[in-house]
Amino acid sequence: xxxxxxxxxxxxxAMAALPAQLAADSGPxxxxxxxxxxxxxxxxxxxxxDQHETDALIGKVFSYLDIDRDGSIARQDLGPGGLKxxxxxDGLVDATEFLAPGRAFIRRGDRNAxxxxxxxxxxxxxxxATRPRHxxxxx
Length: 139
Ligand SMILES: [Ca+2]
Ligand SMILES: [Ca+2]
Ligand SMILES: [Ca+2]
Prior knowledge:
Blueprint: H1 4-16, H2 18-24, H3 28-41, E1 49-50, H4 51-65, E2 72-74, H5 81-85, E3 92-94, H6 95-109, E4 116-117, H7 119-128, H8 132-137
Antiparallel strand pairs: 1-4, 2-3
Helix pairs in contact: 1-4, 2-3, 2-7, 3-7, 4-6
The structure holds calcium ion (3 copies).
């Protein structure tokens, strides 16, 4: 599939920006946007996003960015987001650090603790982002 990496990068970028975008886009369009997110990330087509799916998708982006295949990406190569990803501040973003936001995304939104995000939970993540104090606390 020629467009695979573009789709994955778009999904990742959309995921990173998801709460803000949903907050800016509440109402019926927000639901449509949440549905599009699930669609883009729901590999097994069960209508939910789980950690295996975020790991698989984000892992592909990681391999794509890890050009020299040494298992890490220089922090500065990731732009402004790199500093946040480099949790242990060693200047490199390894796979664990790179996958962490996707896992946090699931944990943050998983209201019923079934380990996966439903359309409703993705929607609620969006409305949580409209409460700045809550959002700041969860970081
Ligand atoms: Ca799924
Ligand atoms: Ca690191
Ligand atoms: Ca859930």
